[in-house]
Amino acid sequence: MNPLTPPAHNDQPIAWLNQASDSEANEWLHGIYEHSPWVAQAALQHRPFRSLAHLKWALCDSVTRASHAQQLALVKAHPVLAAKPATGLTCESRQEQQLAGLWQSTTDQAAELQQLNATYLAHFGWPFIIAVRGPRGSGLSPEAILTELRRRMTHAPAHEFHECLRQIHRIAETRLNEKCQSQPRLGSEVWDWHEWLAQFSDPGFKEHGQLSISYLTAAHQACAQTIALGMKACGFDEVHIDDVGNVVGRYHAQNIDAPCLLTGSHYDTVRNGGKYDGRLGILVPMACVRELARQHKRLNIGLEVVAFAEEEGQRYKATFLASSALVGTFDKAWLDQQDANGISMRTAMTSAGLDPRRISRIQRDPQRYVGFIEVHIEQGPVLHSMHLPLGIVTSINGSVRYLVKITGTASHAGTSPMNQRQDAVAAFAQWAVEVEQRAKQDGDSVATIGMLNVPQGSVNVVPGACHFSLDMRAPNDAQRDAMAHDILQRLHDICAERGVQCELEETVRASAAPSDAQLQRRWEHAVTQLGLPIHRMPSGAGHDAMKLHQVMPQAMLFVRGENQGISHNPLECTTADDMQLAIDAFSLFINDF
Amino acid sequence: MNPLTPPAHNDQPIAWLNQASDSEANEWLHGIYEHSPWVAQAALQHRPFRSLAHLKWALCDSVTRASHAQQLALVKAHPVLAAKPATGLTCESRQEQQLAGLWQSTTDQAAELQQLNATYLAHFGWPFIIAVRGPRGSGLSPEAILTELRRRMTHAPAHEFHECLRQIHRIAETRLNEKCQSQPRLGSEVWDWHEWLAQFSDPGFKEHGQLSISYLTAAHQACAQTIALGMKACGFDEVHIDDVGNVVGRYHAQNIDAPCLLTGSHYDTVRNGGKYDGRLGILVPMACVRELARQHKRLNIGLEVVAFAEEEGQRYKATFLASSALVGTFDKAWLDQQDANGISMRTAMTSAGLDPRRISRIQRDPQRYVGFIEVHIEQGPVLHSMHLPLGIVTSINGSVRYLVKITGTASHAGTSPMNQRQDAVAAFAQWAVEVEQRAKQDGDSVATIGMLNVPQGSVNVVPGACHFSLDMRAPNDAQRDAMAHDILQRLHDICAERGVQCELEETVRASAAPSDAQLQRRWEHAVTQLGLPIHRMPSGAGHDAMKLHQVMPQAMLFVRGENQGISHNPLECTTADDMQLAIDAFSLFINDF
């Protein structure tokens, strides 16, 4: 099929492609995007490609810029997934479906696949598309494919269409990897480390195949031990578990007195959470240290990797307690907090062999550090929608939260004329529309009404009350406060106009943590070296970096999440290729000092 | 004070007023509206007054047409309610506060009154005003006044301002009654009958002073027995309790074979309900029959009063079972329904001495009836806001109800940009604003979102689901269906635009029951004869008349409710004066055949 096969070495294909004629290049890229040579043609405008990652992005960009009709044609050009050898498959599709083990489906699975394919096609108007090699590249089982098919059937059409395009790009990625003999070796290893760590899970979750690691449970301690053993195996010079349960590994600089770069993230999870939230920021640096140690290479800075014991605030209301200990803001009153079973944090700590009296010793001297960096899965849809594997964090958003009660007058739904109501829901709705508009106005602010309830509402009663939450975030405090001012002002105005009352309780106010300009530039430089375009974005979620920000400069790198970036959910996912890029970026970052 | 006292007979003062000079008339009306002679001046433009009720309405109308500044001055002209003789009271206020027993308050009550008065004044900017003679005209206890003051403190200012005006009109009404020596004798008696009947209440409610009468409980049966005894005492010719528990009283026509007018309403209540919902439509006809019997007067039509045993659908899901038996649509499958304690309707009936096998015999032959009329408390704010005691029902609204689920995609509130959300609440809010607008457009349609919930919503999660109810009603089915079409179309459009799904379940669809033109005209004629303006209005609530509508012409009369017309609530209330007018209207109606 491809007579012009470029040399085997995996740096070479891109060099070859950059100097090839258009027709040679088109022919070489033929088959990467099923029956759709226009994708490659447009992508070639981006030559010279700086890397395979750049080529992949250029191909995505070509599809993104195409018309919806072209995109739909691309989706429809893909074959229906079959449980047995079908005719009309490209050799790429044939090989992939075979490798995925799909042709070893049971009779029942084959029948269900056929039936679901037909339902899907009838519903959406295009065939179900999935990268059967999966996020690690090693194949999905027939059952896993069927589960995805069932799940994706429930998507909104626009959402599912975008998911199909993402799967097409992922298929193209695995095809290009093979063609270039360029496999994400470290990314796949780090992928497997996440799987290994995810085998530990708290009782009540593990039995259902769910992941939950709450602070200082047996599973939590097993995670810590595993990470500590892993750090030792990677070749860290010092490894210990501190008195809040953080696992700390240090890899010394060439000069032992050189300042240190602090990095890391958390290993606890939410209930029924994802495998990558937090852990990616521990395991990526560990992989880099292992490569350094294997090469007996020392950097100009020391590297200190902290696997934080607690970030999610699940067991105790002491979110970020682990990073708080490093910045010296661990509140001793937290020790008396009790979990749902009445076990105090102090008891939990001593039972785990930790000594709460020594927590103050965990505090770091910021003078000894050049700063803190954190790699984290995005937990949002931005990179996924842009078909970009990495994003540069500009700021961890400041937030403010309220619980609000609108009180109107309950009255008979049939007998209260529309102009004589004090309808709490009508007031809410009028205002909620403006909340959305106001947040959109900023471009990068967000406002969310996540909880909403008419207490004891009845179908035939004009609602006399409406209770809800309001969460507002923006990349800096001034922008957040301006938005909050406008939104709350409108709430008061609308309530006054409608003769209803409102009552607010502010429950959270957290300052924004802008990235340190210099550290952020280092991330940008690393990403540019990988050949990828820079995308700067705020972090809407809070992270350990927010705590470290209180005492030292910080900057974060985001890694794309699959499934529209869903997080705090078992569907949270990223690919071995994206992990590889994160590792590569981290290596470039630390080598740059 | 009033040297020009008109003659004592209570028809005469109005005749006198109609021919009095402006200055005589103004002087006579002086003091009715505290320190505000302009109220009387404007009202006198309505002369000649057709009745005392007409004069009262004209005075209300004068206030309604005044500017807000004038209304506020009127409210502020009233004295602060004092627990002991205060200076500066008009003689009317002095006498009322004394009669109300307010000056016999305990020291604690007096202190609380003083403190609450001050808080109220500071909050609203005007003094707390209450007709201390109460809805019956016989006075409120200090504790009852304090309870009202505490409750009304929570009102929205616009709402409370209107309540003060209503109280001022009520004060004026009792002053005019005294001045004209015109007391609502029958209205007060019927008021007391409601109190008597309300002493029966189901266990679990009675202990808390709450009213609840569910189908065939011991208290329910005691009500039926009481009504039956009452009917006999009133002089009905035949009284019996039928096999669904309806109490039926017949007062024969002059000619025993003459057709019959059917009337009545229900004696069951909702849980913790009001005393007047349903019962007013039983007791008003009973009072009229008693007057006829006392006068040994026979009409040209027979009168059949039915106290329906069940209308609220509280114990069994068989709303209107009692009137269904009259129209022949009692569903025998209902007999197997079980209540919350597992007692079937059949068992409940036989335990109460009823024979379910004979229910079919309850069915009436429509040929024998000229129609069905029903007097009912409005259960809405319309008459209250218009300061009108009686309203003419044009139609019992047709209704349709839905339960709706919007399904978007739950995502992280911090990390999901505003333009990449499938936010179920945002879609809901955009649509709910349009629901209100569309219902308002018709003038007499209503649409209500009474239940609303984000299932398992979190403050930091973009809501992936929003569940709610939608209740729509209009005076005729075509209007209801046009509104429902537009509203549901917008729901689908908005969901499609936003890439979220919606799912609807229609739970109720009831046809409108327009009033019979001839019977409605008879009500209008009666109300006109009382000197009151006609206000035609749909009934937003369902009533027994809706069932009877299936087999014979029907028309209803509404009586104003106090407290903004609140119903299904212990605050449901009407005055002895309004009851008197309902009795007078009913008498005129039946005498007119």
DSSP strand tally of chain A: 16
Count of runs of 4 or more consecutive helical residues of chain A:
20
Total domain units of chain A? 3
Q: How far from one another are the termini of chain A?
A: 46 Å
Structural class of chain A: alpha+beta
Query: Uncertain runs of chain A with pLDDT below 50, 5 residues or more?
Result: 1-9
Mean pLDDT of chain A: 93
> What is the CATH-assigned architecture of the largest domain in chain A?
3-Layer(aba) Sandwich
| Proportion of residues in extended strands of chain A | 15-25%
Quickly name the level 1 CATH class of the largest domain in chain A.
Alpha Beta
Describe the main β-sheet of chain A briefly.
9 strands, mixed
User: Over the alpha carbons, how many angstroms does the gyration radius of chain A reach?
Assistant: 26 Å
CATH topology of the largest domain in chain A: Aminopeptidase
Helix content of chain A: 40-55%
CATH superfamily of the largest domain in chain A: Zn peptidases
Shape category of chain A: globular
Largest interface: pair, residues per side = A-B, 73 and 73 residues
Say what oligomer this is: homodimer
